[in-house]
């Protein structure tokens, strides 16, 4: 197993470093700082005093940001794909099943890993949620508090949204603008319901999206699902080697005959 992975790494790793993947955290960190200094306090005060219908709608839509259903769906899809790959009666069917399995494994990895890391970070930071802020306002902190009241930064829901929708944008880059807009709206529902400050959401979206890109780059370095480019984001493999493999196999059999 390890020898196989090492072999794939040697064949597929382009050794580009991470310079192509620093744009997301750079832009995200600047937006987070601006939000901390300018928007967090007035926006949270306005939301807590408002009874807007958007707040009611946000309470329903925000449930889409929970990671449980996404992890469950990806795990089921991965299990089914691996099962079908063993039962497939043709090389084409087996290849497609393994490809779907790689998609499920990628989404499962990016949502679970980013979720674990962001939950650790929010407990270490201990920022108060808007409903529980002290006299320090949006800068109310209680590191290692361990309670729901002080787990505001970054937003776990927004991290899941950023991770899954960035994953979708890498899998279907033609629809990337749609996924970007959807991520912003879904993430900001956490602000509408008064659970987070805008900077919490921006930090979560940034971290989730960056996690998806980094994990896609790791997949690419082992030749799974994506391929690396000298610049830019990892690219989903468009030309798959199955036809070449089948053709070479056919030529080999013809030669033997």
**Biggest sheet layout:** 2 strands, antiparallel
The average pLDDT score comes to 82
Shape: elongated
Strand segment tally: 2
Distance between the termini: 35 Å
**Structural class designation:** mainly alpha
Low-pLDDT sequence parts: 239-257
Number of helices: 9
Percent range for helical residues? Answer: 55-70%
Determine the strand fraction and express it as a percent band: under 5%
Q: What Rg, in angstroms, do the CA atoms define?
A: 22 Å
In what order do the strands lie side by side in the largest sheet?
Answer: 1-2
Element pattern in H and E: HHHHHHHHEEH
Briefly summarize what is shown.
The protein is 68% helix and 2% strand.
Describe this structure in words.
It is a single chain. By secondary structure, this protein is mostly helical. Helix content is 68%, strand content 2%. It is built from nine helices and two strands. The protein has helices spanning 2-12, 23-49, 53-61, 67-87, 91-125, 156-171, 176-192, 198-221, 242-256; strands at residues 226-227, 235-236. The chain has a two-stranded antiparallel ribbon with strand order 1-2. A hairpin with a 7-residue loop joins strand 1 and strand 2. Helix 3 (53-61) packs across helix 7. It is elongated.
């Amino acid at each position: 197993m390890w020898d196989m992975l090492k072999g794939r790494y040697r064949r597929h790793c382009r050794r580009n470093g991470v310079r192509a993947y620093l744009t997301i955290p750079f832009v995200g960190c600047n937006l987070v700082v601006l939000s901390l200094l300018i928007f967090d306090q007035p926006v949270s005060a306005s939301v807590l005093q408002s009874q807007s219908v958007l707040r009611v709608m946000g309470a329903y839509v925000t449930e889409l940001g929970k990671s449980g259903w996404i992890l469950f769906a990806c795990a089921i899809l991965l299990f089914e794909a691996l099962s079908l790959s063993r039962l497939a009666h043709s090389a084409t069917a087996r290849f497609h099943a393994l490809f779907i399995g790689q998609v499920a494994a990628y989404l499962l990895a990016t949502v679970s890993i980013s979720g674990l890391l962001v939950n650790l970070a929010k407990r270490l930071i201990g920022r108060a949620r808007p409903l529980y802020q002290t006299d320090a306002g949006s800068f109310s902190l209680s590191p290692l508090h361990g309670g729901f009241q002080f787990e505001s930064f970054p937003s776990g829901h927004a991290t899941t949204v950023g991770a899954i929708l960035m994953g979708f944008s890498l899998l279907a880059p033609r629809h990337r603008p749609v996924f970007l807009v959807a991520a912003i709206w879904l993430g900001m529902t956490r602000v509408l319901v008064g659970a987070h400050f805008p900077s919490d959401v921006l930090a979560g979206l940034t971290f989730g999206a960056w996690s998806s890109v980094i994990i896609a780059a790791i997949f690419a370095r082992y030749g799974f699902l994506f391929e690396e480019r000298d610049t830019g984001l990892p690219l989903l493999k468009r030309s798959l080697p199955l036809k070449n493999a089948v053709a070479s196999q056919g030529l080999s059999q013809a030669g033997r005959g």
